[in-house]
Amino acid sequence: MIRLSILTLLSMSLLGTAYGADIKKGGLFIEPILTYERGEGDIDYPSPINSSSSDIDGFGVGARVGFHVLESLFIGADGRYSMPKFKDSSLDQDTDSKAFNYGPVVGVQTPTTIGLRIWGGYILGGQLDPDKDQGVDVKFKKAKGYRVGAGIKLGIASLNLEYQDLKYDDTEVEEAGVFNPGTSYSNVELNNESWILSVSFPIGL
Q: 5, 48, 143, 181: most buried by Cβ count inside 10 Å?
């Protein structure tokens, strides 16, 4: 699916290069991002808890760093850091958390002051670390997944909407009444799907 998305983006970039004679030469860029995430997920705990549902909502920051090709195609690295609220239905948790993830991104855009931008990225790693609550302190690690998005550039800013699908393949139990503390469980997985609203500021270098 990711391969198909990238091929689609590359095809659109070829169309972008034919958009008009005002296409400029490419170069390096940095793009600070302010985000708000709203997501839902499910966790496969071992017995006696078994499955649980989760909510992840909150603000974050991030940045893309990379380069433009003819201003219509951009390729780079995307990193995010957030401090969302984490809720777990089975453990009755409602606590603050810290999260980060990172990976490559590729996108296309119309090379004008006001224009459309579309991108997709693969998330190579990351973690979600909720604060201790209800006597339980766990950390979800080894995030993998993808993120796709679209935005409208208005002058120096871009207003964006993204969909993110993440799977955390490893869980470190730091403290818990029903688990052995200090143990990592590769069979405890968190699957999370989020919508992310953001405003970003692409800056050519």
A: 143
Spell 148-173 as b/e; 16+ CB within 10 A means b: bbebebeeeebebebebbbbbebbbb
Domain membership of residue 149 (yes or no) is yes
**For the chain, what is the domain count?**
1
Q: What is the pLDDT of residues 164-203, one digit of tens each?
A: 999 998 888 766 555 565 666 666 788 999 999 999 999 9
Q: In this predicted model, what pLDDT tens digit does every residue of 76-111 receive, in sequence order?
A: 999 999 999 999 887 788 999 999 999 999 999 987
Evaluate whether 64 touches 76 at the Cβ level (below 8 Å).
yes
User: Is 23 inside any structural domain?
Assistant: no
Residue 146 lies in a domain: yes
Helix (H, G, I), strand (E, B) or coil at 3: helix
DSSP character at residue 136: B
24 belongs to a structural domain: no
Give the domain CATH number at 9.
2.40.160
User: What is the extent of the structural domain holding 172?
Assistant: 2-18+30-204
- pLDDT for 11 equals 42
Place of tokens 């995430």: 37
